[in-house]
Amino acid sequence: MSYHVTTGRWKLGVFLAFITALLWAAAPIALKVVLDGMGPITISWFRFTIAMTALAPYLMVKEGLPRPSEFKGFAPLLALAAIGGLCVNQIFFMTGLDRIPPGAAVVVIQSANLFFLVGGLIVFRESFGWKQMAGCAAFALGLVFFFNERIGKLVHGIDEYAIGVGFILVAALGWALYALAQKQLLNHISSLKIMLLVYAGGCACFLPLSSPKEALGLTFLQGALLLFAGLNTVVGYGCFSEALDHAPATRVSSVLASIPILSLIMSRAVAALVPGYIEPQPLNWLAVAGAFMVMMGSITAAVSSKSSLAAESPEAGAPS
Length: 320
What we know:
The protein is mostly helical. 73% of the residues lie in helices and 0% in strands.
């Protein structure tokens, strides 16, 4: 099985990854408001449906819809893995977000980057040295610092907050599976076709368990934010998929590491400007330091000078 090689246009890939970071930082804040009027499964179904509806006409004009002839070898299994991974990510993230603040959810979901990195080491043979080990250690310590006020409560038993964190960790594993599968699928079909396939699969998976009539009970703001979340899905994942086509997984992961800080800032701003809609994560100085450690640890773990330089050029033949 051949391995996907980037185009070498890593600056474009980094820019697209930054757009993804902004969109993914804002999405949990919007979804937290929508959760007050709609269940997690129905929200996930609407997000996939909106994304599929927005992408399909554009794809038909630009490239045409995916064809069965394009799926050869391992492609069908990779497609199923991508669909299953993102479905797991969506439903477990939404269920966890229903229990914890958006800022905390985004910090925990950052572990997906490390799962993605470990998968890259195994599947794409990217290098891993002492700097990456130090980054992983800083990431883990940063999580401990970020949740320092909650750790003591765990001694007395598992509460809803801890359950929410657990759901987010499962969502992170699902996202890593999706990301690795879709990166390899780029050898068979374009990124846009992959995303349409994933959205269609998500719609089919969630429809039997969803209740679309719940949309009738949403307020105007909740409806607008649900639409934003759906469009955020297609644009965010579209930029992410394109970023992986141009830049190594290590570079993309390092940019996405900024998502927790961006989301914490956005959450504080929304709570201050529009009180009553979301409850920001309580932060003491140790938690703030932990958030920065999570970001820096993820960046350090993702970036390797040796692998990044080799992967920048497709001619180098290094898998990415």
